[in-house]
Amino acid sequence: MRSRTTVELFQYWNDVRGNRDLPRRDEIQPGDIRSLLPNVFILQTEPAGGIYFRLAGTNICSLFGNELRHRQFSSLWRGDQQEDIGRIARQAIESCTPIVLAASGATAAGDWLDLEILMTPLASRDGKGDRVLGALSPLSGPMWLHMMPLQHLMLEQVQENSEVPEMLTRAGNTVIRLDTHRSPIRRAQHLPVFEGGRRN
């Protein structure tokens, strides 16, 4: 984890869940993470299999120049990665496994922004996992940030276990495996690495 927002949100999620696999949505108190809210989002699953933004913080919406509520999460990503992104989010929920994505965002002018994305699973009141509490954080502050909207995101990798603090490994030893032939996954201890990379 490279972003303070990522670390603090994960710590909060971990504290709220206690000894359970995941906390319930109604246990998340916005006032407890007030300083993080501009970079926080919640995703929700749909019966048809889609995953959409239930809410998105102001900084996230500003990055894309649009309100993201009700928009499909996968629609933010490069076309050939959208199906895989949906699988990652769904399997994070189904496996009760928080994951950290290293990503980059591109503007229409060809500028790039490195980002870190945390996805932690949440349950509804009945205990069924159906949501994601996450954070999307820029890792730098170029002059054009929030003035030139991002056109799409590109997944670089799911970070190796050695790149995240000890508290993330405590979250569980589940390996997330993607059922895809286009995007090979190589195992890196507890977490997989998505073989992405920018295409010019």
From TrEMBL:
It comes from the Bacteria. InterPro entries: DUF1457. This is PAS domain-containing protein. The lineage of its organism: Bacteria, Pseudomonadati, Pseudomonadota, Alphaproteobacteria, Hyphomicrobiales.
